[in-house]
Amino acid sequence: MSEVSKNLWKDWRLHALVFGIVLVTEWIGTHEFSVGPGVILLLPMLYAIIIGLALFFTPVVKEKQSKNAEPLIVLGVTLLIAKIGVIIGPSLPQIIEAGPALLLQEFGNLGTIFLALPIAVFLGLKRESIGMTHSVAREPNVGLIMNNYGFNSPEGRGVMAIYIFGTVFGAVFMGLISGFLATISPLHPLSFAMASGIGSGSMMAAASGSLVAAFPSMETEILAFAGASNLLSLSTGLYMSIFIGLPLTEKLYNVLTARRDKKSHVKTGRGA
Amino acid sequence: MMKSMQEWIVLLVIFGIVSLLGNWVGYGTFPVGAIPGMVILILVSLVGMIMQKLIPIDIPSIAYVAIVGVLISMPWMPGSEQIVAMTSSINLLALTTPILAYAGIAIGRSWTDFVKLGWRTIVVASFVMIGTFLGSAIIAEVVLRMQGII
Fold first, then answer.
1. First and final C-alpha spacing in chain B
2. Domain assignments of chain B as residue spans, ordered by start
């Protein structure tokens, strides 16, 4: 957390609002409904982000509260990580045993390239798609793309687009799909717990929170594995992108667009 | 450093009080009994943030916070049982609700940027997230099965 000397604690309006949101959303509690064989869980934290966002557009929240709230997310995540730390501690022997799975699933982040890049190219996106799909676009990845291509490049716009989506909807999206995918697929909840660690505190909390709500008897294991995986992603994610993710995305992009260009050339008769 | 430490402490206490009351409403844990656990978590956060300031290596403070949390709760650490028992009265989700409430208020300002993104971005972004989540889960499943853990 950066040097905060703006006396954020004095923003009583902001804290009172958050306090109100927390009481209301916790009082509403968790609700679930089935979609086919899967379960979608509505958790207090999901209502909290939506109510917070909605309040931004009312006179209750002023520009100042919105600005002040940003560093407080970081501080809250710090407390959350402390809690995850004390969940990981007692499970350490188990985590060490599962170590290889934890390390290797980091390669799963490359799944995003194979799934999302062809879709981006199919939708007609150009080099934006490289920035968009080389990773889940959290802060270190935005930095990497800006560093390699510059802020005002198609790749830079692409990574920012996904970054903004992730910031606005990441937690809600992960919270909704993780419980759902885990209940419809035959994969084990612990595999999904490891997958919850994508390198964003709020997304990990949402994804693993939904898993815990769907499989309450495995709470400690799920949270320990998700937390350990998230820490691993935070520390290795950038290097994964630098050495594997981004070069792979470039290669695959060239292959995909070569095919697309050829096709369009044939169609327009310019290919010959 | 002293100034920002005071600020951290006051803010963490505010955050802690809000979480404790959320923990009460949502998970039925009476706040008084959960205070020791919250105090431990706040101390762990502070120690981690102070370490980040003092150690001249560029590692984010949450990495230190996590290490401190893991160290004090490891089975072979004296007193770890009490620490685990005390902190277990704080529900993880009770901590995430205030974070996302602050996040909701903060992201209001990115909303207009988001609206400008267009539907193609939303489709791609959804697949970006599903891709990493399913990819990781499938690899984890294969390796955990090979190890005989699940």
1. 47
2. 2-110, 118-150
Give me Rg for the CA atoms of chain A.
21
Are the CB atoms for A126 and A215 separated by under 8 Å?
no
The shortest CB-CB distance from B4 to any of A3, A132, A165 is to A3
pLDDT digit string (tens) for A196-211?
999 888 899 899 999 9
Question: Considering chain B, what percentage of its residues have pLDDT values greater than 70?
Answer: 99
A75 with B44: Cβ contact below 8 A: no
Paired tokens of A228: 């350990």
The residue of chain A with its CA nearest to that of B136 is: A108
ipTM of the complex: 0.90
Judged against a pLDDT cut of 80, whether residue A268 lies above it is answered with no
* Pairwise CB contact (< 8 Å): B138 & A92: no
Q: Does residue A219 surpass a pLDDT of 80?
A: yes
* SS3 label, residue A153: coil
Give φ, ψ of B89 to 5 degrees.
-80, -10
What is the C-alpha to C-alpha distance for residues A23 and B23, in angstroms, rounded to an integer? 9
Q: Which of A112, A201, A212 is nearest residue B132 as measured by Cβ atoms? A: A112
% residues pLDDT > 70 (chain A): 94
Say if residue A97's pLDDT is above 80.
yes
Query: B81: helix, coil or strand?
Result: helix
- Closest alpha carbon to B141 in A207, A94, A103, A101: A101
CA-to-CA dists, residue B10 to A260, B5, B135, angstroms: 58, 9, 41
Mutation for B interface: A42, A53, A86, A162, most B CBs within 10 A: A86
Residue A4 has pLDDT above 80, yes or no: no
pLDDT, one tens digit per residue, over B92-110 is 889 989 998 998 898 888 7
Chain B neighbors of A139, CB-CB under 8 A: none
Tokens of B129: 């997230």
pLDDT at res. A270: 45
B10 to chain A, any CB pair closer than 8 A? The answer is yes
Question: Contact at 8 Å (CB) between A209 and A201?
Answer: no
pLDDT for the residue numbered A5: 47
Using CA atoms, how far apart are residues B61 and B15, in angstroms rounded to an integer? Answer: 18
Q: Is there a contact between B139 and A107 (Cβ–Cβ < 8 Å)?
A: yes
